[in-house]
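User: Structure tokens for both sequences below?

Assistant:
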Amino acid sequence: MTKPKNEEGLKRVVGITGLSFNIVNCTVGAGIFALPAIVGVELGAFSIYAYVFCGIMMATIMLCYAEIGTRVTKSGGSYAYVVAAFGEFAGFIVNWLAVFGWSILGSAALMNIIADSLAVLFPVFALPWVRALFYFGLLGFLVLTNVRGVKEGVMFVKWITVIKIIPLLCIIFLGFGLINSENLQWEHLPSVSTFGNTTLVLFFAFAGFETALGASGEIRNPKRTIPFGILLGGAVVLIIYLLLQTVTQGILGIEMVAYKDAPLAAVAEKIVGAAGSTILLIAAAISCYGAVSSDVMNTPRVLYAGSKDGLFPKFLGKIHPKFTTPYWAIICFTGLIFIFSVSGGFRELAVLASAAILLIYLMVIFATIKLRKQPTPAEEKSFKVPGGLFIPIIGIGAIVWLLTSLSKWEILSTLIFIAFLCGLYLTMKWVKNKRE
């Protein structure tokens, strides 16, 4: 069992507040600005219950992360948990799924959304060379901030989370007075297929919280911070989503179809006039940048952990002599985001993301079940999900159901990617054994 004492050369400075802000920032991205219409058009007023249903599904996964996160407290998050339970090979697969299949491609997509949003207001952002310079500046700032220390990275995440949440809170508080109660009444239940397809889309709006645990080796008092931080951050996300859906549905009602691309902008315009759309457009760009900032702070720790275990080049495991951060992992990870942001090549590979995150969740739940069987010393009390296997089984069932809902291209691309990783792993082992 991994002891809470930090032996990695990293400083444990992230507390409950920092972890909670990080989770909110990772989860609440650009999708929320269109999500109310995506759900509302299909389900109408019944959409509120879809959020609750998804919240329950995600809670089962979060609880498993809360349990295993208090047992395995080294850097790496999902990767470290899977390695502790199933060994190097399984960890190698999860590491690549998390770093490349989810984080790098997702962040590259968000960087392009930022530029696309600003191009509406400033057409110059449509020029490729301007976008490249813009990406370099934004990502360069994140590199400098995070290399200087995880404390500085957490502080930036806190501030940008507050900035991105303020417009959403304004919509909630100012919009309640404009709600038409008739728009919140539903006359019949949606079909099972409609509810299922919509839930699949909605589920991914809750995904991303696990990225915050990439810096688990720098979390202070992980036995307490991780469960409290996960549950607090998850609860805040669910409440924000529920309130935004209620306000948007209550104001727009059947008009939601006409504003399906930007429902929150339409609500903001009804609240404060024409300036509302511009404000929400800028808020969407800030929200995207906030999500990328969390990725740059957390995911390099997964590369760092893989390097320390011998799965990646040794230089990725180097710690900065002054700032005690995995600076090469941060630089290389952010550099890959820049390359994919500029090239746009992520669009063809983005189909990996959905299956990648579901497989990671599935492996972590199985890891939680396996490690639960291992005895824990009395002095190392860890959080344990109540109810025996009930919660993990619900989580497994939800993930399997969502996996069956993926398109054949998502499944095929993921299988090809995993086959490539298996070949890469075997090649690396062969080269390593030959050298020895």
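Moving on to the next sequence.
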Amino acid sequence: MRIAIPLVQGKLSLHFGHCDQFAFLDIDEASKEVSSREDMTPPMHEPGVLPRWLHENNINVILAGGMGQRAQQLFVDNGIEVVIGASGGSPEELASAYLQGTLQTGSNICDH
């Protein structure tokens, strides 16, 4: 399993399309722990580019603060589970909470 988390200055970006990097977290599914992390600079943000790019990088899940409905559908179309409303914590903490079923999510802060 591979999880992507959009970052701004090393912290969770509240809107995935405004991030300057993505943390790619490889997960050991047996132990449900992060086995490695790689921060990647995404291509320019245009409709459809990020879902395709993340799919090409073998991402299974994206954890985000906010995301528009069209983007959510594009991720689903690319076989990527979308979790929105995440906030706070390091990428490793967010991924760990997701894996343990304890990730607290709020409302989607994106309305487009």
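User: Anything stand out in the second?

Assistant: The chain has one domain: 2-100.
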